[in-house]
Amino acid sequence: MSEQLQFDEIKSQIQQHLVKSGKYDIINKQLKLQLYESGWYDEVSQLASRELQGQDGDQSMNFDVLFASVKPKAEEMVPTQVKEDIIQKLKAYLDDVIC
Amino acid sequence: MTDMEQIKPTYRNIASSLLDDMLVNIIRQQMIVAMSQQRALYNMVGDMKGGNFLIEDSGSPNKDIFGHDKQKLKTSDISKYFPCDNCGRNIAAGRLSQHMSKCLERKRR
């Protein structure tokens, strides 16, 4: 359990550094751009619409239900190339700051 | 990969974890957008219990708002012919209005 805590702490410090430097914002925007260009946003919108229409018969629209249902599929739909690219960018940043 | 290796603070693991967080936030934002669009639509059309309608995604650049293929529309325009009421000739649908304005002008003279 302490390994997890250690990991979380290191990750948190790095994230703070990323945000402060403005790099987090830049990488986040690049991620969104790549997702948009790959058509991921369109696919996820369609998926969400279908889920919402499916829900409508049984219950009123519920964010938690929608999110829980769509999240795993949406994560799966992210192109491997995009994931790799962003991971490489983050690793490059880590290389830079952690000397 | 064992559990121990997965939580080891390697560059890859940290980068991967940060990416996951970014994606979760993006997905969350998209769900909020989708829900508010749905809600706005339902507010417009009223409560249609049992109503069966599909929101056509206008994301495809090749389709117009009725879901017709734009390319096919162009060719269907050209393949249909209509007789001109003035001169009786068969004119292609796309050129009909142009022809009518010239034809009526000619007749008037």
From TrEMBL, chain A:
<keyword id="KW-0156">Chromatin regulator</keyword>
<dbReference type="GO" id="GO:0005654">
    <property type="term" value="C:nucleoplasm"/>
</dbReference>
<dbReference type="Pfam" id="PF10163">
    <property type="entry name" value="EnY2"/>
</dbReference>
<keyword id="KW-0539">Nucleus</keyword>
<dbReference type="GO" id="GO:0000124">
    <property type="term" value="C:SAGA complex"/>
</dbReference>
<dbReference type="InterPro" id="IPR018783">
    <property type="entry name" value="TF_ENY2"/>
</dbReference>
<keyword id="KW-0805">Transcription regulation</keyword>
<dbReference type="GO" id="GO:0070390">
    <property type="term" value="C:transcription export complex 2"/>
</dbReference>
<keyword id="KW-0509">mRNA transport</keyword>
<dbReference type="GO" id="GO:0000932">
    <property type="term" value="C:P-body"/>
</dbReference>
<protein>
    <recommendedName>
        <fullName>Transcription and mRNA export factor SUS1</fullName>
    </recommendedName>
</protein>
<keyword id="KW-0010">Activator</keyword>
<comment type="subunit">
    <text>Component of the nuclear pore complex (NPC)-associated TREX-2 complex (transcription and export complex 2), composed of at least SUS1, SAC3, THP1, SEM1, and CDC31. TREX-2 contains 2 SUS1 chains. The TREX-2 complex interacts with the nucleoporin NUP1. Component of the 1.8 MDa SAGA transcription coactivator-HAT complex. SAGA is built of 5 distinct domains with specialized functions. Within the SAGA complex, SUS1, SGF11, SGF73 and UBP8 form an additional subcomplex of SAGA called the DUB module (deubiquitination module). Interacts directly with THP1, SAC3, SGF11, and with the RNA polymerase II.</text>
</comment>
<keyword id="KW-0811">Translocation</keyword>
<comment type="function">
    <text>Involved in mRNA export coupled transcription activation by association with both the TREX-2 and the SAGA complexes. At the promoters, SAGA is required for recruitment of the basal transcription machinery. It influences RNA polymerase II transcriptional activity through different activities such as TBP interaction and promoter selectivity, interaction with transcription activators, and chromatin modification through histone acetylation and deubiquitination.</text>
</comment>
<keyword id="KW-0813">Transport</keyword>
<dbReference type="GO" id="GO:0006406">
    <property type="term" value="P:mRNA export from nucleus"/>
</dbReference>
<keyword id="KW-0804">Transcription</keyword>
<dbReference type="InterPro" id="IPR038212">
    <property type="entry name" value="TF_EnY2_sf"/>
</dbReference>
<dbReference type="GO" id="GO:0015031">
    <property type="term" value="P:protein transport"/>
</dbReference>
<dbReference type="GO" id="GO:0071819">
    <property type="term" value="C:DUBm complex"/>
</dbReference>
<keyword id="KW-0653">Protein transport</keyword>
From TrEMBL, chain B:
<dbReference type="InterPro" id="IPR013246">
    <property type="entry name" value="SAGA_su_Sgf11"/>
</dbReference>
<keyword id="KW-0479">Metal-binding</keyword>
<keyword id="KW-0010">Activator</keyword>
<keyword id="KW-0862">Zinc</keyword>
<keyword id="KW-0804">Transcription</keyword>
<dbReference type="Pfam" id="PF08209">
    <property type="entry name" value="Sgf11"/>
</dbReference>
<comment type="function">
    <text>Functions as component of the transcription regulatory histone acetylation (HAT) complex SAGA. At the promoters, SAGA is required for recruitment of the basal transcription machinery. It influences RNA polymerase II transcriptional activity through different activities such as TBP interaction and promoter selectivity, interaction with transcription activators, and chromatin modification through histone acetylation and deubiquitination. SAGA acetylates nucleosomal histone H3 to some extent (to form H3K9ac, H3K14ac, H3K18ac and H3K23ac).</text>
</comment>
<dbReference type="GO" id="GO:0070461">
    <property type="term" value="C:SAGA-type complex"/>
</dbReference>
<keyword id="KW-0805">Transcription regulation</keyword>
<dbReference type="GO" id="GO:0005634">
    <property type="term" value="C:nucleus"/>
</dbReference>
<dbReference type="GO" id="GO:0006325">
    <property type="term" value="P:chromatin organization"/>
</dbReference>
<protein>
    <recommendedName>
        <fullName>SAGA-associated factor 11</fullName>
    </recommendedName>
</protein>
<comment type="subunit">
    <text>Component of the 1.8 MDa SAGA transcription coactivator-HAT complex. SAGA is built of 5 distinct domains with specialized functions. Within the SAGA complex, SUS1, SGF11, SGF73 and UBP8 form an additional subcomplex of SAGA called the DUB module (deubiquitination module). Interacts directly with SGF73, SUS1 and UBP8.</text>
</comment>
<dbReference type="GO" id="GO:0008270">
    <property type="term" value="F:zinc ion binding"/>
</dbReference>
<comment type="similarity">
    <text>Belongs to the SGF11 family.</text>
</comment>
<keyword id="KW-0539">Nucleus</keyword>
<keyword id="KW-0156">Chromatin regulator</keyword>
<keyword id="KW-0863">Zinc-finger</keyword>
